[in-house]
Design brief:
Blueprint: H1 2-20, E1 23-33, E2 35-37, E3 40-41, E4 48-54, E5 62-65, E6 76-85, E7 96-97, E8 101-108, E9 114-120, E10 127-129, E11 132-134, H2 147-153, E12 191-198, E13 202-207, E14 212-213, E15 218-225, E16 229-235, E17 246-250, E18 255-263, E19 266-273, E20 276-278, E21 283-291, E22 297-301, E23 315-316, E24 322-329, E25 335-345, H3 390-411
Parallel strand pairs: 1-10, 2-11, 6-7, 12-18, 20-25
Antiparallel strand pairs: 1-6, 2-3, 4-5, 4-8, 8-9, 12-14, 13-15, 15-17, 16-18, 19-21, 21-23, 22-24, 24-25
Length: 412
Amino acid sequence: MKYSVLKLACVVAIAAASAARAGLPEPDAVLYGTITLDGKAVTAADDLTVIARVDGVPNPVGTYHMGDNPSAGDQYVLRIRVESLADGSAQSNDAALIGQTAHIFVQAGRGAEKSATDFVIATRGITEQRNLVASTGNDCNGNGIADSLDISSGRSKDCNNNGIPDECDSLSALTGPDCGGHGGGGGGSMSTLTTSVVSQHGTIKCDPGGGAYPPGTIVSLTATPDAGFQVKAWTGTDNDGSKEQTNTVTMTASKTVTVEFEPIPLNASASADPSSIIAGQSVRLHGSASGGLTPYTFAWTPVESLSAADVADPTASPASTTSYTLTVTDALSQTAQAAVTVSVTAPPSNPETGEPIPPSNPETGEPIPPSEQDTGAPARPAFPFCGTGIAEAMTASLVGLGLMRASRRRGA
């Protein structure tokens, strides 16, 4: 009995905890890739944990220990819990919101967490490859390698033997006998490259990576825009006038490179086939769009003579010459417009009676019945009876046959 009560209490406590969760669960954001720590590639056998944190949230919003997922091999696969908030609710203590920035850290064993990258959760269910580079020690030049290893390996000089790479040291500190020709603040033996994206909507990567380079190194830059965006402008590169996704920067000194993205322009077009009709006829309008970000929405005006106003290809039946305007809106809320004019002419009239002359079939010369004039379908062939329809012909045939039989009976 005591066990049943305890079990019930646990179930109630769990249910209450679930009900108290402030947010509505969203699909996880996923980061994956390789890890380089202190200049060495991390493998599944290493005791290393990847941790995601969000400012203002007390607990990690995601963790992954190397080797937890055997199918991932030597890569990490970090799932970040994401939620959205109902009106008036508070954010959970272990989940991120769409639009927040997750700070990604790596932790070797039980050591200190070291910053590896920042990741903006731009949309729900986002998945992105992000190769991490980090250092377990001080890393003043941001190349993912501890300063002590930079110095011992010869990547950086330390002319005054103070344990700080010369490119990070102040000019006043570079006073040792071996400091001639060096400069402080990035003007020493290594040049520092800082990159950033203006207003998000894409990423930028460097090859080779690392952040600190010997003088004269040419670094390849690759900008990857989000769907529906393109490169707008580069700054700090060898070719700032380029709008291509690739560029270079020559490290003659420490430099800062930025790239800015913009939406791909949206274009709209409209046409009618045919563009000229006779009053009473109909015509198909054709609308299309390119650029921007799908899906597109269509809106035609004026709407009074259209079969539908919110489709790409409506049918128009104007009583007089009418100009139709198409407005296209894409997923980024960009709009574009196009217009087409449908000319309407009155049908020809009989000069003697003034009555309109119905259109005729160009092949047979027969008048097109009113019910078929909208489509221009060929007229039905006339029958040599009182009427021109099949029903009238059948009626006349049956009447004639009846009269013939009655006459034969009287003759008999």
